[in-house]
Amino acid sequence: xxNCRIINFKKIGNSDVGFLTALEENREIPFNIKRIYYIxxxxxxxxxxxxxxxxLGQVLxxxxxxxxxxxxxxxxxxxxxxxxxxxxLYIGPGVWHEMYDxxxxxxxxxxxxxxxxxxxxIRDYAExxxxxxxxxxxxxxxxxxxxxxxxxxxEKTRIWGFSHVxxxxxxxxxxxICEHVFIxxxxxxxxxxxxxxxxxxxxxxxxxxxxxxxxxxxxxxxxHPRSKKYPNKFExxxxxxxxxxxxxxxxxxxxxxxxxxTIGAGSVVLSDVKxxxxxxxxxxxxxxxxxxxxxxxxxxxxxxxxxxGKSYKMIDNHLKPIF
Length: 323
Hints:
The chain is mainly beta. Helix content is 4%, strand content 39%.
């Protein structure tokens, strides 16, 4: 089922000393965590849930006891039992879910990708089916020479010829995927993302809203590659909101490219890039800061100013906009 899958977490320890499981956002958890809640002391005969979300992603973890989840994407239904604290269930947008058969003393932990928003809920099943039918008719352009296996494509997104999007990929709204682009399974693109020609986006790459990826940008998700030998988990790389990656730049796996940062053409980026930072060269080094509009900022009396009128100030070694 699309947008609903089991995630197995690493368990550290043994039966003599006990176990520990660590979870990090955009690594084990495939999104930024904005809200955490847990459900407990539920009588066995009580059922919970009975809703879907339009935008929210969640990971459900039964940290104690057992619970069953009925998931329904409008085309397929399945029942998943959660009974192990190192196993999570990812439920993405557009999946109706019901929780039942809570065992005594069960605790269901939920990690959510956004804050509570009642307008994001669909609480009537008939309305949910109409919503899913409408989504199937949304305005998406897929070129006749493109291969798009994923159904998780946002409205007004355009995918051009000789590009291939695998079944597990998620692409947001109003994106433009140019020719000769390959997008693997464990990949998520936000809204308004531009991917120019000749880009391959491998498992473990997460791209937020309004990002520009120039021609032939190279992403790395395995820093010690060997033919026919695969890591237990690929590196997780986060490209944050509004950033721009120049043509032919190389992005090392496991790093974070900050909000509204700029990567110069041909640069080799080996470490994290701060918000608004401009980096160039091999290895890439900072040469200044850019505005949200993309222009380079000019420093005047500890204030960074842009020709567009926006201003910024350095606070705790991080550039922040002044409103």
